Structures are given as structure tokens and as C-alpha cells.
UniProtKB/TrEMBL annotation:
Pfam families: Methyltransf_25. Keywords: Methyltransferase, Transferase. This is Methyltransferase domain-containing protein. Residues 65-157 form the Methyltransferase domain. One of its GO terms (biological process) is methylation. Gene3D superfamilies: Vaccinia Virus protein VP39. Transmembrane segments: none annotated. InterPro entries: Methyltransf_25 (IPR041698), SAM-dependent_MTases_sf (IPR029063). One of its GO terms (molecular function) is methyltransferase activity.
Amino acid sequence: MSQKPASDPVGHAMLAYLNGNKHAALTVHSNVADEEPLPASYFFRTLWEMPELERTALEECRGRVLDLGAGAGCHSLELQSRGFTVKAIDASPGAVQVLQARGVTQAACHDLFALSAAPAEHYDTLLMLMNGLGLVGTLDGLQRFLQEAKHLLAPGGQILATSSDISYLYEDEEGALVINLNGPYYGEVEYYMTYEGETGEPFNWLFADAGLLQDYADEAGYQVEFIDEDDSQQYLVRLTLKQQNITND
């Protein structure tokens, strides 16, 4: 009996847009907010349609770049146009088809946590944009990723990532936080996507406040530099391995 293909609403929405349906849009469902549309065009932004944090991150890239959760490749293509060698990965097979069709030179379908098990490749920059740190899913995932990233980084390499503090979602009318301190971390959000009647698998996404990220990165042996932030409590961070961890890991 043939195996049912995995659902891929994100990939199918991007493929539809690429093939001429400029109104293709996903619906985003989460456990912290009402459902909302996400136009597929968002993944196809030009440089000047990107938020300033993303443009800053592209300026900070160096060397060989691994674009994690590359989507339709807007960052990879911009970096390629600047002469960078970029490998783009995404867990969505449809996204990888889009990456290849749009001219991303190296594109592959990978789960984030399968990378260090692959043949050894090293990168000067690991790029995680569009709240890209969220790819780790949970605090446990963050801890695991920070260890696995050590095997992906070239000497002197960096992780450039964006994330957000979403505590504002839990404020009452007086501005006080209403959070269950005995429950999961408030930045661990559960999502699923739908497109044209297709429902994707649920997944976790992490929104890490800056203080928490600082603690986890310190514990894992990284130097932390907060490069910039915007008015929506989103920030751009650079993580580099402390000197002693380059030789010890």
C-alpha cells in the first residue's frame, strides 16, 4: 500500500504563487491568537520589502552561509547576488522546489536537527530570519540546537537570528503580565497552517525573550551580541563561540 504523502500547505501555497496565483494565502492557526491570513507573497519579498532587521542581518553575513528555514529564498537570492556562497534548507519539499526554480544554487530539504548528522560541512554564517530562531520549537530545542550548531560553524563562525518577546500577548488591561509560572514558557507557541483545504502537521515555534536567550547561549558557551531591535519587540542577535569552546567541542 502506498504511503500517503505528507501535507505541505506552506510549500503548496508558495508553488501556487510562483505559478501565477498572486492571491495564494495560507491561514495561520495558533494557541495564542486568532487565525489570520499569511499571503504567500510574503515569502517572495524583495530587499526593500524586508524589515530593517533583515536587511541589517544580510549586511552582517560573512563567508559561506547556511540559510535555515529559507522559504522561497528571498534572503538566499539576495546574498547570491552579492557573491556569497549560500546553501538554503527548508523542511518543506514544496519550498525546496521553489528555491530550485528561483535559482538558489544549493537547496535541500532538511529537518533542522538532522543537519549535524549529515556529512561534515562548515559555515561562516548560520542565518535564521523571519523570527527564524523559532525553528528550534521549544526551550529544549534551543538547548539542543546551540550544541548541534557547534558542529556546523567554521572557526570564527556566527549565528545571526531574529526572535521576539511576545509577553505583550499576556498583558491584562493594566499592563500586568498574566502568565502561569508553572506552565510551559509563554514563548513556546503551537501552530498549524492550512491552505486550500489542506491542513499541515502541528508544530512548535519559539519566541525567546532576550534575557532568556542570553542565559541559554551563555550556558552553551556562546558570546551574545544584540545588534538591533525594532518597535515590535523583535531583535537581531549574533552568537559566536567563546574561545575556550572552539577548542573544547
